[in-house]
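Appendix B, Record 12. Input sequence as logged:
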Amino acid sequence: MQDTAAVLPDTPLMRQYRELKSRQLDTILFFRLGDFYEMFGEDAQTAAPVCGLFLTARQGVPMCGIPHHNHQHYVAKLIKAGYKVAIADQMEEPSKAKKLVSREVTRTVTPGTVIEDELLEPTMTNYLVSLDVDLVGWGAAVIEVSTGEFWATQSLNDQGSRKLKALLSRVRPAEVLCSAKAAESLNLRLEFPSACLTLREHPPVWREDLPAAQPLPGHDGFLFDGTPPAGSPEPRRGSGPQPKAGSAWAGSPTWVNHHLAAAAAQRCLRYLAETRFHLQDLLEPQYRESSAEMQLDETAIRTLELVESSDGNRRHTLWGTLDCCSTPMGSRTLKAWILHPSIDIVEIGRRQNCVVELLDKPDVRGALAQHLREISDLSRVINRLATRQASPRDLGALRDSLARRADIVKLLSENQFCQELADTAAQIEAVSKKLEPCHALLSRALSDKVPVKMSDGTLIRPGYHQELDELKALKSDSHSFLAKLEAHERKVTGIPSLKAGYNSVFGFYLEVTRTHQSKVPARYVRKQTLTTAERYITPELKELENKILNAEDRILRLEARLFEDLRQETVKYHGLVMGLAHLLAEIDVLSALAETASRRDYVRPTVDLGYDLKVVDGRHPALESLMPAGAFVPNNLAIDACDPRIVILTGPNMSGKSTYLRQSALIALMAQIGSFVPAKEASVGVVDKILTRIGAQDALAQGQSTFMVEMRETSHIIKSATVRSLLILDEIGRGTSTFDGISIAWAVLEHLHASYRGQDEDARGPWAFGPRVLFATHYFELTELAQLLEGVVNFNVEAKEWTDATGRTEVVFLHKISEGPADRSYGIHVAALAGLPAGCLARAREILSRLENESASHKLAQARGPGELAPGEEPTLPMFDEHPVLHALRLVNPDSMTPLEGLCALSELKKKL
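Logged structural output:
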């Protein structure tokens, strides 16, 4: 593309533009000119179609512009399209500029650093992820700039980067920082093609912020101690402010022992500094150990529809079903719990005890929800204040929210709760007391009705600042001041007809008739001569004039200064406000879980260190919520530590097999976030991973067919499963030939049954060594495994079949799970429901009948053996005797044989050779 700088006119303004643009080459630069932001050259050509702007040109340079007061609307469009936007503002009033107006880039907005309320959905998160990759593993730092959430983790043994991809699937980052080499090796562009995912090539950073350490493997071309390899170019430092060197957290043993995570966190902070954020001194990352939570890979998150449904409707997800939260903070926390379920039975029990207390106190729960609804999104409010992106309304929202905290403290203190909930209430009260000075300051300083914009001049409460009060009094009551001045001058001069007035040409004046000219004091300065009078000014009047005429401008400037003072003072309470936000969000989630349990008749599950999964009358939470009361058919599940451990589920299409699989996994997950579950009774031995293979999905961009994707996912499941895992497998092997599919499915089940022996020393019973498996299939041959392997049981979905008055066979699926194998698939019936033409259906029934008869005849022939005649059958004399093996092969029908039958037939053939 053409170099913009090369074609811009050589004027002072354009030289200023070029200088700013040279420091923002990878952004679209919004250049403030009066009441507009202008874009030039390539920036204009890129932005115009995205923003729907008219592209024009001046002196051959493409350009377009937007109103400055509405620029956020256009920023949102560009960010959504994956671009960065740099905003260059005027740093002084044009009327007061001696030469060219000074301009500086005041903000760089990227997809992962959005903090403006107008650009964010209240309940959604917007993550920036930084990756640091080397030969032995990877480190990842995750930050949500608008809420202050900041944590990092690492993995040194991640075959195929499965853990990293699972992490990215959970956080769904808006922006990823990594080197080009890392992006290519991880195949991120193909693995995460979402439009909101933006890969940024970030230059290597010096590691002076990290503690000195022994030499460690290099990553991104740099050693951990910050020393670049010989001959390396000096890394770009960026034009913005840099993070403080020697961050205290970076020197702690946790980060020294997790150097990849530490490097990723530092990369993240440097990037924020470059984009003009000022959070590096306020935020400290937390190290998160992945083994402390249930592992969910990208397939499980998608197929279980935890936070996103296939149709895009949040109501159809687990998150949407459970979300009765009163605050955006609570909704985001609930989402985080769902994507990061706990495996700590103490923490799970603590949450459950709190839910029980709130469930038993509906009046308290209702009052708490009402108070919480009056609380603003505190984490985002305080972070906008910390990053200088706040409006006056943010200060007002913080003041009002801090006022409401007292109502919550009072409500919680007046009721007797379990120890866990009482501890939370005590923490809220303790933090609230420490925030009282902040609340008192804001209450004293801010007016009752805080304006939307600073230009309104009504931010500060009367009585807070004397000079501001005087200026506002001057502005609102200039006539009164003139009247007082007039009375004062009449008394001093003894001129009874003296008048004080104002006109737009001469400003304020004192008018004296010619009769009293002899009494005019020497300090009066003649300003205008009239026919019957003279008009004068005095030093006092001139001072008053300046005060009145400049009052509005001075009011705005003074309020802006006071706003900045209040902002800085408030940011001192950043940690406390964040702590209060966290506590309120947690109690909001617990209250919401209690409300959902009350509305939908959920029960408290038992969660322990056992290995079972038992559910009585379990229901699918999302589907049940969309159906009339009582319409959903509940089902039982009992997987024990000893027997059964593997459930093979057979039944017709459209009968509810996949629903049963999903609801079982969702109930286990809900139990481990501390929620009650949709059942009459439930017991869950802690699950460390939920691994799923449900549905078919091509990966054509990666050259993988549906079957290849299925096999890759199955391979991952087999390699990743532990004795505590829950495996949900649906239709393994269906993407290939019948024999291949049966063979693969059979082998997978045998492997899952036998390959985990001795993994857990605490496992009870001879069959407690494999994962819990729910395996749905249409291969009825697999049901024979229940007779061959201990710990395997057959379940089926019931169907009712009858013949109507016309002789037509009718089928209804009962959606009820019972023990034993199914005998039919009813595929033709499902095809009829789908509207397949009658001719096709009739032909399908004819072919099915013939195949079933051939299968029966084949089995009978096998029972007779070669050469034997059926009753009444006449022998014939062939021209040449046929070899017995060839004769036997002619009788074999591979499509109707089970794997065992095939092996037996092969053995018999071998004996005949």
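Residues 574-600 form the longest helix (27 residues).
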